[in-house]
Specification:
Layout: E1 2-6, E2 12-16, E3 28-36, H1 39-45, E4 61-69, E5 81-84, E6 87-88, E7 116-117, E8 134-137, E9 145-146, H2 153-159, H3 162-172, E10 180-184, H4 188-199, E11 204-209, H5 212-221, E12 225-228, H6 235-241, E13 248-253, H7 263-271, H8 280-288, E14 289-297, H9 310-315, E15 319-322, H10 327-339, E16 351-354, H11 358-366, E17 375-378
Parallel strand pairs: 10-11, 10-13, 11-12, 13-14, 14-15, 16-17
Antiparallel strand pairs: 1-2, 3-4, 3-8, 3-17, 4-5, 5-9, 6-7
Helix pairs in contact: 3-4, 3-10, 6-8
Length: 381
């Protein structure tokens, strides 16, 4: 089969790989219909995440058609169109039993923290991802879900991570009626978090970024106020002034490991790899919320140390909430919002590429060229 293959930082290409096979009776093989490139895939592409091995296939956002099922699979049949959450999870361990699918204890040798994630380095289990013609889906009875007939395929694709994660980020922010919410990062996760903040009762939503076309998307998609941090002297002071000197009630870090805004932090994290990620956005979030406020962390960070202002968070009495999204838990409510016309995930998609053009897609997305917010790969094109 044809698949995206990682060859080192900034080097990806399409190669022939063996087609995946059933390795366990609970497996399914899915022929990929659509796969997205996620902002967190760029952390892998840039060499930010440890144990990202040459030869790996990325891609944790994908939908497709079931080609083959193992002998124990009961809930899927060949020919079913399915959306697959980015979490690989068993459905029966201590954590899965409590709905903490992202923390499954049986799918990752490094499962002291995260569970399994498709296409996201061996720190997350070493599973090949969906930026390919076919993908092996373990525990096929608990993860994949048949796509409802009424649901557009591109909307279903974005439910596998970006939109579910953005919604989860707004949930973790513990938004009360009339609250002011600041979202750092106007990528797909941040845009979704900003839009979903309104569903949860926010009275005011601000989005912070420094790229003009992304801020414009925040205004049109999320109906948020926007702040370009490159155009103000001090983003924290600016946000405090915009909130009567108190700070926002809640903040969402939807940036993660490669945040711009501090030259020293960016160099030590993104260039020298001395941190698990540049915590600029997270520190801005800590500083810009009011005392007693809540910070929700959705941006991806590596397992190494990061210079986070924990003392400030302690002394302000902040609540910090974070995790990888438990994707399938978010679907029932999100499907209601889509069906009722309140949310159209596919509005985030700006570019579509055949799989053969994956190197161009990564380059364009990484360099933020041509107004790219969310690129999608089409293996059959």
């Amino acid at each position: 089969m044809r698949a995206m293959v990682y060859r080192g930082p900034y080097k990806v290409r399409v190669e022939e790989k063996p087609r995946p096979r059933i390795e366990h009776p609970n497996d399914a093989i899915v022929r990929v219909g659509l796969a997205a490139i996620c902002g967190s895939d760029l952390h892998l592409y840039h060499g930010m995440m440890p144990d990202t091995r040459v030869g790996s296939t990325f891609g944790h956002e994908f939908i497709g058609t079931v080609e083959e099922v193992g002998s124990s699979v009961q809930h899927l049949s060949v020919g079913d169109r399915v959306m697959v959450p980015f979490n690989v999870y068993c459905g029966s361990c201590y954590f899965c039993a409590r709905g903490l699918y992202a923390n499954c204890h049986n799918v990752n040798p490094n499962a002291t923290a995260v569970g399994g994630i498709y296409g996201y380095s061996h720190t997350c289990g070493g599973y090949d991802g969906g930026q390919a013609e076919y993908v092996r889906v373990p525990f096929a009875d608990v993860g994949p879900t048949v796509i409802p007939e009424w649901l557009d395929e591109e909307d279903a694709l974005l439910l596998t991570d970006a939109v579910a994660t953005g919604y989860f980020g707004a949930q973790l922010a513990d938004i009360g009626e009339g609250d002011t919410v600041v979202v750092f990062g106007a990528g797909p996760v941040g845009l979704t978090a900003a839009k979903c903040a309104w569903f949860m009762g926010a009275g005011r939503v601000l989005v912070v970024d420094h790229i003009g076309y992304r801020l414009e998307k925040a205004r049109t998609f999320a109906h948020a106020e926007t702040v370009n941090f490159a155009e103000v002297d001090d983003i924290v002071v600016h946000l405090k002034r915009a909130t009567d000197g108190l700070g926002a009630d809640a903040a969402v870090d939807a940036v993660g490991a490669e945040a711009d805004g501090s030259f020293l932090q960016h160099v030590t994290a993104a260039k020298l790899k001395l941190q698990g990620g540049s915590p600029v956005a997270l520190n801005w979030a800590i500083d810009s919320v009011r005392k007693g406020g809540t910070v929700s962390v959705m941006g991806a960070y590596g397992p190494m140390f990061s210079a986070v202002k924990f003392g400030d968070a302690l002394n302000k009495g902040l609540t910090l909430r974070m995790n990888q999204c438990h994707v399938k838990r978010q679907w029932p409510r999100l499907l209601e919002h889509i069906q009722n016309g309140y949310l159209k995930p596919s509005e985030l998609i700006t570019h579509r590429f055949p799989l053969e053009h994956v190197a161009e897609a990564y380059h364009l997305f990484s360099r933020k060229l041509d107004g790219c917010v969310k690129p999608v790969l089409v293996p059959s094109a």
